Amino acid sequence: MLANLSLKNKLLFTILPLTLLVYLATILLVYQSSRASTEALAEVAVDAIVHQQAAEITAYFDSALQGVRTSADLLSRNMVDNRLTGSRSADQLLESLLHNSPQASAAWWLPAQTGDALYWLRDGQNVQPAPNEHRAALRNALGASAGERESVAPPRALPGLDRARPVILVQVPVRANGQLLGTLGLGLDAGQLQRRVAQLRPLGVGLAALTAHDTTLVAHPDPSRVGRRSVDTEADFLGDHLQAMVDAVRNGTSLTTRFVSPAIGEEVFMLAVPVVIGNTATPWSFGVALPSAAVLGGVNSLAIKMLVLGSVAVLLVGGLILSLGQAMSRPLSAVVQAIGQLASGEADLGSRLVVKGRDELATLARELNRFLGTMGELVAEINGTSQSLQQTSADLQQDSQAAGAVVDSQRDEIGQLATAMQQMAATVEEVAANAELAAQATREGDRAVAQGQATVTRLGSAIAEDAQLLGQISQLTGQLDQASQAIGVVVAVIRDIAEQTNLLALNAAIESARAGEQGRGFAVVADEVRALARRTHSSTEEVGKSIGMIQDTTRSVVAMVQKSRDTSAANVANAHEAGLALHRITEMIGQVRDMSQQIATATEQQAATSEQLSHSLVSIASSAQSASQGTHQVQQRSQHLRALAGSLNGLVSRFRL
């Protein structure tokens, strides 16, 4: 099909489609690679961010639970016969608990069996006890949320608080001698937690939500959905994945999924992780969702830009090919016309093609002009030669008589040449022996290179094992770093305990001062507790510094191990390259061995040939005697040569000079 097209169209229909296919394939490969790598990086980044934010939520609750636990322990020590000696100490504990917990709106003490509940509320910056009617309604509002272990309940309204300000119930059991005496609770401001979770936007585009164990939404980007069950509010967003999300929340497991959300009509990446709060048996769930388009937007934009640039490039290439075809066809047509005239035998050897530029076509025209000039000179020489040929043929007859004498002389020289050929045959046999020795040496070199290649292979395996061992060491140092981080968290908790102990000791000293002589002994105990708190705080600071040094050292070890691991990987690559080089040397030695073998074979053949040539020269010497007899035939043929010269003159006259 292409044979019937012009050069311009051949260029257009071959180069342009091929360029377009290569460019489209490149765009597809770049897009697929960029999409896969971007999705993997985004998934890892979102997973790390979600776990970090879930840890922040856990720390938010743990800070509140720590104060409640400390107050519950102090309250249990003030019990006499499993009852409060007076409500004053419990009120002070609740007041102090609210002052030390800015995220709390209410605090209460609820006896397990008998006794009135104690209930304190926060009003702005002020903390005060709740009225009696609110205390009486507290037990009904709490219901059966308290139990034998710590618990966290979804937001609900409490007596004395605005219904628009629901609180999250955090309750800790108070025990003495193994018996449950009551529950000490704290009501965390749900609105504050809602605002805090609403600010968590992974990668700047994601949405975060916090769900209780019973699938009640605690914090959500849409505040109107807070306090409702997920099955009632999230069906429009999750679609067929709603049940999987509900099961993950109830079972306290993680969930990672990618689906097309019916609410927004595009693909969404969602990740949910459990949030363990204190010693509760019902972990909550923290989930994050972000549109895949936000992650892959840069990849799609890059593909569109590449397509647009490719279209422009194809148009430019097409125009360039058309221009190039036209520029090539004009000088080629002139060259074809000149060659056609030469083929017809009517060419004007004095004419020349127009030469423009320095490209291949201009070079072709220039060389054709040189060819025409050379042909003109050749035809002129042939014309002159044909005229002298007739004279030469006449002289040839005379020269043939002298040729007989020359043939006799050649016969003698050929005899000498036969003797020299025998000597050359002996030399060729010696060369064959040396070639065989060279082939044997190359075989020994081949074996040595094979041993070197095996050694390099074993070295590469050993380096690879060292690199694997360094990878394991890197993992262990990473675990050590994580452990040191965990110890840092424990040190922070101990520091908080020391501060709470100091505060409690201060309160105890104030109470002992009020009690006068009866509280002097208690004042001594309070001073000892404060001294113990100071020593604990100073010890905690020293431990914190030591942990910081351990963390810095661990990071340095991780960096050094990683650097050593990279060096081992480079050594493995170098060993592999050395093995390949030895393999190539082995192949080259094999080629040299084969060539040496071929040389040996060839020299043997030359020896045989030289022997035959020696015999042939003897035969030529005998044939030279009969050559003189053929010289008379040259006279007859010289007459025929004169006739051919006349014909040559007629042919040359057809060309114009």
Q: Could you please describe the fold and organization of this structure?
A:
The chain is an alpha+beta fold and 657 residues long. It folds into three domains: 61-185, Beta-Lactamase (2-Layer Sandwich); 194-297, PAS domain (Beta-Lactamase, 2-Layer Sandwich); 360-642, Orthogonal Bundle (Helix Hairpins), CATH 1.10.287. The protein has helices at residues 7-77, 87-99, 132-142, 190-198, 230-233, 235-238, 242-251, 292-344, 360-515, 520-627, 631-652; strands at residues 79-80, 83-84, 104-111, 118-123, 126-129, 151-156, 167-176, 179-189, 207-211, 217-219, 255-261, 266-275, 284-291. The strands form three sheets. A six-stranded antiparallel β-sheet has the order 5-4-3-8-7-6, with helices on both faces. A five-stranded antiparallel β-sheet has the order 10-9-13-12-11. A hairpin with a 2-residue loop joins strand 4 (118-123) and strand 5 (126-129). The mean pLDDT is 75.
Short structural description:
This protein has 657 residues and is of the alpha+beta class.
The biggest beta sheet is recorded as: 6 strands, antiparallel
Secondary-structure element pattern, one letter each:
HEEHEEEHEEEHEEHHHEEEHHHH
Q: What's the Cα radius of gyration? A: 52 Å
Beta strands, count: 13
How many DSSP H or I helices? 11
CATH architecture of the largest domain: Orthogonal Bundle
Task: Indicate how many domains the architecture comprises.
Answer: 3
Task: Say what the CATH topology of the largest domain is.
Answer: Helix Hairpins
Report the principal-axis shape.
elongated
- The percent of residues in helical segments reads over 70%
